[in-house]
Specification:
Helix content is 40%, strand content 15%. With 397 residues, the protein is α/β, with parallel strands linked by helices. It folds into 2 domains: 144 residues, Alpha-Beta Complex (Aspartate Aminotransferase, domain 1), CATH 3.90.1150.10; 246 residues, Type I PLP-dependent aspartate aminotransferase-like (Major domain) (Aspartate Aminotransferase, domain 2, 3-Layer(aba) Sandwich).
Length: 397
């Protein structure tokens, strides 16, 4: 067996199941889960229709590079959303959702024969970043979130020696779990470090279309263009239809940016067997070409935050994020695992302890004392969960 598999950590939800194994949820209340960040809104009808109308695509082998019509639809969306013009043939690659792409990109980019090969991640983080790094033969380093900056990663914690060993930096904007959006000045800082040390930046932007004001979150390619980096050197952005269009089961997304990185990524994925079905490609074209369903999806999330926050803010340290569908809440007493266990036992509401989303780094676990609440259920269910949480906090205060 590949010995690198032994370096992997248990996934947060596996650890949570073990921590809750001896907890008996209150049987008098229906279970409500705010733990898993899985979109639960109905799939858009236009995508379902396109999928059904394209079943003939199942009888053909698809190309790993994707159909030119899909690459063009993606490039068109990027142009409309970010004002960035991409060459669909060389700067866009369809992928089977962002999870697959985040993992396989690390296998493409990392050179494990270089001494001290390192992948840098924000902390807390999406655990695929770490697993991808470890299975690529790299070490991991972490930039802890800064509570004073809306829990954005504090890149200043990373010393020059670590930057010099770094080959790949994962960023997540809007972030998971706190929803912070990286401003242009932070992108400028990372681009300068990339120029100095030669690492690739992979920008995970899967929450980019769930935001709460009139200003859409800044994207990596948009930031690069604003700073005169029109070739997107050593930069790729990744996103999917899972959150934007409530299509987690479609497994459809894209990677875009530096043509040189995309070329090597395509080579890897050709052998990896990651071609998207033509049926899924045609449904994806319908999704990328329509914004009405995205606006309706966003409005539904906005309603949840508008109704849930007034219930939770009197009892928890919590605020509206920049974007995404999570609340990153501080708990009284600072023991996030004990809070999750007690809440499940007394009120049958599942939440994710923040310490499970992070690693001990720079002397602390930056997720400790916080819980992640995923507002993915229907509005009424989210409101009921918030009311139960508020009752639990008041009773245990």
């Amino acid at each position: 067996m590949n010995p690198l598999l032994q370096r992997l950590h248990p996934y947060p939800f596996e650890r949570l199941r073990a921590l809750l194994a001896d907890v008996t949820p209150n049987p008098a209340l229906r279970p409500i889960s705010l733990g898993l960040g899985e979109p639960r809104h109905p799939a858009p009808a236009l995508v379902e229709q396109a999928l059904c109308a394209s079943l003939s695509g199942l009888s053909s082998y698809p190309a790993t590079a994707g159909d030119p019509a899909l690459r063009q639809a993606i490039a068109g969306w990027v142009q409309r959303r970010y004002g960035v013009a991409l060459d669909p043939a060389t700067q866009v690659l369809p992928v089977l959702g962002s999870r697959e792409a985040l993992f396989s990109l690390a296998q493409t980019v990392v050179d494990p024969t270089r001494p001290g090969a390192t992948v840098l991640c924000p902390n807390p983080f999406y655990q695929i970043y770490e697993g991808a790094a470890l299975l690529a033969g790299a070490a991991t380093a972490f930039a802890n979130s800064d509570p004073a900056r809306n829990f954005a990663a504090d890149w200043s914690q990373i010393d020059d020696a670590t930057w010099a060993r770094t080959q790949l930096v994962f960023v997540c904007s809007p972030g998971n779990p706190a929803g912070a959006v990286m401003p242009l000045a932070e992108w400028q800082q990372l681009f300068a470090l990339s120029d100095r040390h030669g690492f690739v930046i992979a920008s995970d932007e899967c929450y980019s279309e769930i935001y709460f004001g009139s200003q859409a979150p800044l994207g990596a390619l948009q930031a690069a263009q604003a700073l005169g980096r029109h070739d997107f050197r050593r930069l790729v952005a990744l996103t999917s239809l899972s959150k934007r269009s409530s299509l987690p089961g479609l497994r459809s997304g894209f990677v875009a940016g530096d043509a040189a990185v995309i070329k090597q990524f395509l080579l890897y994925r050709t052998y990896h067997g990651s071609a998207m079905s033509l049926t899924v490609q045609r449904a994806s074209i319908a999704a990328w070409n329509d914004e009405a369903h995205v606006q309706a999806n966003r409005a539904l999330y906005q309603r949840k935050f508008e109704q849930v926050l007034p219930i939770l803010q009197p009892v928890l340290e919590v605020a509206l994020p920049d974007a995404a569908f999570y609340l990153w809440a501080g708990v009284a007493g600072g023991d996030d695992v004990a809070f999750a266990r007690g809440l499940l036992a007394q009120y049958n509401v599942a939440v994710l302890p923040g310490s499970l989303l992070a690693r001990q780094a720079h002397g602390l676990n930056p997720g400790a004392g916080r819980i992640r609440l995923a507002l993915v259920a229907e509005v009424d269910e989210c409101v009921e969960a918030a009311q139960r949480i508020a009752s639990y906090v008041r009773e245990t205060a």
